[in-house]
Design brief:
Mean pLDDT: 87
Strand content: 5-15%
Radius of gyration: 21 Å
CATH superfamily: Cytochrome P450
Helix content: 40-55%
Number of strands: 14
Structural class: alpha+beta
Largest sheet: 5 strands, mixed
Length: 429
């Protein structure tokens, strides 16, 4: 059955509501997290405690709240946990968010299963493929989003940040180009799944039911796209076409498997890019001299993106499970325990980064953890960076003398788990 589509106003508002709902769900405590993390790195770099629960952040991974949980804050320990997928596993994720995707979720796979699935999906996200899309990305961003804005001289650029990544990634996946409202509705369902995990037990059952319904609607919509692509011959370079043509474990995938894989990618497909782009804008707009420098030297755009991902990572922590009895910095970690690796803290570790609390696009490149690290590093990081690069260049080209709107509140980057600004009000000449 074809999912019921709504009119433009309704679908757009549902997408915006879903995005705002995710932000609220993962906001957590309004404390100065960087100040808190500095103290933890100094005094308690490894603790036997579910630190993020104390900040009011829901558990997006396993459902068993009784498992012992440990938290690590320093760069060295976070890197050790994320790079070692043998001792620190991810299969438990299938109990949480993975439950909405029939367990077929890349982030919830381990070992050979993960290697094979990632090898199947990875080619579409490689630089040689993504770079071929750059002219199309640029044309869409300029003609559909920015040029219609130019004459207004003011805007909340988070509206743009919410919509352009969804438009681009869904096209790359293989959704029809001529059904924008369908894409917006599908994206709203994808985001609604992220609201499934809740801190409040009274809200949890209702939210989980709503997330399961959204997952079903999402499945039906993706399945329809898969059927359409297969019927058209699956000759394109989009992800669905490539999956139809690919082999997995010596055989071709059926429509259900392709649908389930694609569905599992969608909740993060636009959401994290939106927040990263928003934070990058804030960090540059707060520093007009730096923004002007980037405008005049576009070779600095990629450096600015990488530094923004370090300085204000969207996903502030990752969780792994100890596969055996382990020890981290002298603290014993029993088999089966959960380990929270606080990415946001590690990215500001003074022992790893000189002047770590300074937004410095000229710093010497060094691995940070904004897109994760190790075997589970974000599969879509290059496409996200490319989308942001193309978008920022277009903004700098089309919106001259871009600056914060002095009549509106200054933007704030918030969130204990999924960080980013809610609004970025700007004016231009």
């Amino acid at each position: 059955m074809k999912p019921e589509m709504t009119n433009s106003t309704t679908s757009t508002s549902s997408l915006e509501r879903a995005f705002a709902g995710v932000a609220d769900n993962y906001r957590g405590s309004d404390v100065d997290l960087n100040a808190v993390y500095a103290v933890m790195r100094r005094d308690s770099p490894v603790i036997a405690e579910n630190f993020m629960a104390g900040l009011g952040v829901p558990n997006i991974a396993g459902l068993d709240a009784n498992r012992p949980t440990f938290t690590v804050f320093k760069y060295r320990e976070v890197m050790a946990v994320l790079r070692d997928a043998t001792n620190f596993t991810s299969g438990f994720i299938a109990e949480g968010l993975g439950a909405f995707f029939d367990g077929l979720i890349l982030t919830g796979m381990d070992g050979e299963e993960h290697r094979k699935a990632r090898a199947l999906l990875q080619p579409i996200f490689m630089p040689d493929v993504v770079n071929r899309w750059k002219p199309k990305m640029d044309a869409i961003i300029r003609s559909e989003y920015l040029q219609p804005l130019v004459a207004s001289k003011r805007a909340d650029l988070m509206d743009f940040a919410l919509h352009f990544p969804i438009r681009l990634i869904y096209s790359l996946i293989g959704f029809p180009e001529n059904e924008p409202e369908r894409v917006k509705q599908v994206a709203a369902w994808a985001l609604a799944i992220l609201a499934g995990p809740q801190v409040d037990p009274e809200k949890a059952a209702q939210a989980r039911g709503a997330a399961m319904e959204a997952a079903k609607q999402l499945y039906d919509a993706v399945k329809e796209a898969v059927v359409q692509v297969r019927a058209a011959g699956a000759t394109g370079e989009d992800l669905i076409s490539r999956l139809i043509r690919a082999e997995y474990e010596g055989r071709q995938l059926d429509d259900h498997e392709i649908t389930t894989f694609v569905r599992s990618l969608l909740p993060a497909a636009g959401e994290t890019t939106t927040r990263t782009f928003g934070s990058l804008l804030v960090l540059l707009l707060e520093r007009p001299e730096l923004l002007e420098r980037v405008r005049n030297d576009r070779a600095l755009v990629s450096k600015a993106i990488d530094e923004a991902v370090r300085f204000e990572p969207v996903a502030t922590f990752k969780v792994r499970q100890a596969a055996q009895d382990l020890e981290i910095d002298g603290v014993k970690i029993p088999k089966g325990a959960m380990v929270q690796a606080i990415v946001m803290s590690a990215n500001r570790d003074e022992e790893a980064f000189e002047h770590a609390d300074r937004f410095d696009i000229d710093r010497k490149p060094k691995p940070a953890f904004g897109f994760g690290f190790g075997p589970h590093m974000c599969i879509g990081q290059f496409i996200a960076k490319t989308e942001i690069q193309v978008a920022l260049n277009a903004v700098l080209d089309l919106l001259p003398h871009l600056r914060l709107d002095p009549t509106k509140p200054a933007p704030q980057i918030t969130g204990a788990q999924l960080r980013g600004p809610h609004e970025v009000h700007v004016v231009w000449d």
